[in-house]
């Protein structure tokens, strides 16, 4: 995992400060903390979308210390699952797969999003992290879709889990990770720390910019 510290540029501070003026005080504090803790590796457009998602779904998100932003505009070889710790002011980034239905030719780059059941594709949008459980992939965490673009997440069993095809050894062999059925699959070496850091009741925002 990579841990990066960052601070807002003056222009970003003005922009996020303006948004805070129209948000409830508690939410505005979280939004400002998210913007300040996000490293330069986090796409600013996706950061803005995550901030908007916090405002839209504020009543559903009851833990706001850590927020995840997944940048599917990046290749699977690049750490693109960003865990932003608002309290610590750090960003931890790790590699994550996308769905085979989103990259049918296995290029290593997501080509399209879909929320259609049976598509085996990745869905964009805001997710609420659910309970931890042990399934066919071992330790995992359930996800609930909060937007129309990922409303079938629970029906499709879209979760966070580990998989052998997300391991660094696969990347070394083929220059890209394998593909999931739409789940957020990470290396077995990362799953315990990831799920501990991104507990239940938190926001995960997935997307790419522009899209």
Explained architecture:
There is one protein chain. The protein is α+β, with helices and mostly antiparallel strands. It has a single domain, classed as L,D-transpeptidase catalytic domain-like, CATH 2.40.440. It contains five helices and nine strands, in the order E-H-H-H-E-E-E-E-E-E-H-E-H-E. It has a nine-stranded mixed sheet. Helix 1 runs antiparallel to helix 2. The radius of gyration is 16 Å and the shape is globular. The chain starts with a strand and ends with a strand. The relative contact order is 0.19. The N terminus is likely disordered.
Number of strands: 9
Give me the CATH superfamily. Answer: L,D-transpeptidase catalytic domain-like
Using the 3D structure, state the CATH architecture.
Answer: Beta Barrel
Q: Helical percent range?
A: 10-25%
Please indicate the percent range of residues in DSSP E strands (runs of 2 or more): 15-25%
**Tertiary shape:** globular
What is the overall number of helices? Answer: 5
Q: What is the subunit arrangement here? A: single chain
**Which spans have pLDDT < 50 for at least 5 consecutive residues?**
2-22
Major β-sheet strand ordering: 1-4-3-2-9-5-6-7-8
Terminus-to-terminus distance:
27 Å
- How many discrete domains? 1
Would you give the CATH topology?
A: L,D-transpeptidase catalytic domain-like
């Amino acid at each position: 995992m990579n841990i990066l510290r960052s601070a807002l540029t003056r222009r970003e501070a003005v922009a996020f400060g303006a948004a805070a003026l129209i948000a409830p005080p508690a939410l505005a504090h979280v939004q400002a903390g998210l913007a300040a803790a996000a490293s330069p590796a986090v796409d600013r457009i996706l950061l803005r979308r995550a901030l908007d998602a916090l405002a839209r779904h504020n009543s559903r998100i009851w833990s706001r210390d850590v927020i995840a932003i997944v940048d599917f505009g990046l290749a699977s070889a690049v750490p693109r699952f960003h865990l932003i710790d608002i309290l610590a002011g750090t960003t931890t980034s790790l590699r994550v797969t996308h769905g085979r239905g989103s990259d049918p030719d296995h290029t290593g780059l997501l080509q399209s999003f879909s929320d259609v059941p049976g598509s085996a594709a990745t869905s964009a949008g805001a997710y609420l992290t659910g309970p931890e459980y042990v399934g066919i992939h071992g330790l995992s965490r359930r996800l609930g879709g909060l937007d129309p673009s990922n409303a079938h997440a629970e029906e499709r069993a879209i979760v966070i889990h580990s998989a052998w095809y997300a391991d660094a050894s696969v990347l070394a062999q083929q220059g890209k990770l394998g593909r999931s059925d739409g789940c957020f699959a990470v290396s077995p070496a990362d799953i315990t720390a990831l799920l501990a850091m991104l507990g239940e009741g938190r926001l995960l925002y997935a997307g790419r910019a522009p899209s």
